């Protein structure tokens, strides 16, 4: 409820802000962005203009301006044949689809998902503000994407790929929001996780991968206070997979003053899948496996052998 009220308040503020700009263009039919017939206003949208796509299928074609002021896709689609830079904010609402089609969507203000989706390859770039993921949305970021901060809530999911660190400042997982992190993800200096109210961060040791997530916050009191905070109702899971072996590590944190468990206040940190140890080598706190994990096939053979022995004994 709190997160819904927050998004409503943000939306109202954004609508009021948009009213002061040059013009609002509403889609009137399917078509190219660069054709006046696609819009209800005179001409075509460009710098500072609002763009509202509701049920139409609009193509941001090569003849279109590469700029827009703000806007939304709602029960329609926007396909990029040319990269688009939104100067303020952009909403992708229920039923709305943005097809990157190999191009960039850059949003200088906030990018807000409320049930909409992004499809196909391309880059999502939100360099200074938040990406808000709500309304049943699931979104995956890879190493080509770049965002400043993210807020994942209301049971939605954000998946962070293993190539580099594509979130600069941090992520809040709130109200049952789920953030999954692939092995090999490296966070930037100053990065933080804030996990609370049923939110979850899940880090999984990928099959055949011997190293996990590296976390190196600024060595500065302000950023260290913001680092991984697992608060009331929050959960962080570190899951070794069936291919992990003794010595493989899943999480490594630059840790000059605190311990890994200091990040947990009223939440939980759960480590599963393998016997493990938490060690400090003088620079890093490391969570690593101390024993082999049987492969699923081996486990199945062991189970079959035990069942056969039990049957023989009963005979």
Descriptive account of the structure:
- This protein has 315 residues and is mainly beta.
- Helices cover 13% and strands 40% of the residues.
- It contains three helices and 28 strands.
- It has helices at 2-18, 221-226, 296-314, and strands at residues 24-26, 31-32, 50-54, 57-60, 67-68, 70-74, 77-80, 84-86, 90-93, 97-99, 104-107, 111-114, 117-119, 123-134, 138-141, 146-152, 157-160, 167-173, 178-181, 192-195, 200-204, 213-215, 229-230, 235-239, 249-254, 268-272, 276-280, 284-289.
- Strands 1, 3, 5, 6, 8, 9, 11, 12, 14, 16, 18, 20 and 23 form a 13-stranded parallel β-sheet that branches. It has a six-stranded parallel β-sheet with strand order 15-17-19-21-24-26, with no helix packed on it. A five-stranded parallel β-sheet has the order 2-4-7-10-13, with no helix packed on it.
- A hairpin with a 3-residue loop joins strand 27 and strand 28.
- It is elongated.
- The termini are far apart.
- Residues 1-21 and 296-315 have low confidence and may be disordered.
């Amino acid at each position: 409820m709190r997160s819904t009220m927050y998004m409503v308040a943000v939306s109202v503020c954004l609508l009021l802000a948009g009213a002061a700009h040059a013009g609002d263009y509403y889609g009137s039919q399917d078509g190219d962005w660069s054709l006046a017939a696609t819009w209800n206003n005179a001409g075509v949208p460009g710098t500072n203009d609002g763009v509202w796509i509701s049920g139409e299928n609009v193509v941001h074609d090569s003849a279109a301006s590469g700029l827009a002021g703000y806007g939304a896709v709602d029960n329609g689609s926007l396909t990029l044949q040319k990269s688009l830079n939104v100067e303020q904010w952009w909403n992708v609402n229920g039923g709305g689809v943005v097809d990157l089609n190999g191009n960039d969507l850059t949003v200088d203000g906030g990018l807000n998902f409320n049930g909409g989706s992004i499809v196909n390859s391309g880059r999502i770039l939100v360099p200074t503000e938040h990406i808000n993921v709500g309304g049943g949305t699931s979104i995956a970021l890879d190493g080509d994407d770049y965002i400043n901060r993210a807020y994942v809530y209301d049971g939605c999911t954000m998946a962070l790929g293993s190539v580099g660190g594509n979130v600069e400042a941090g992520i809040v997982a709130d109200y049952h929001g789920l953030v999954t992190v692939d092995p090999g993800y490296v966070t930037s200096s100053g990065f933080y996780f804030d996990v609370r109210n049923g939110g979850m961060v899940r880090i999984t040791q990928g099959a055949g991968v011997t190293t996990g997530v590296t976390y190196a916050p600024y060595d500065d009191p302000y950023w260290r206070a913001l680092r991984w905070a697992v608060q009331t109702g929050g959960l962080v899971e570190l899951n070794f997979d069936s291919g992990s072996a003794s010595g493989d590590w899943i999480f490594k944190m630059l840790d000059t003053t605190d311990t890994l468990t200091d990040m947990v206040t009223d939440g939980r940190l759960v480590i599963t899948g393998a016997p493990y140890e938490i060690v400090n080598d003088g620079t890093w706190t490391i969570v690593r496996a101390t024993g082999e994990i049987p492969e699923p096939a081996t486990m199945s053979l062991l189970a079959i052998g035990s069942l056969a022995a039990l049957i023989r004994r009963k005979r």
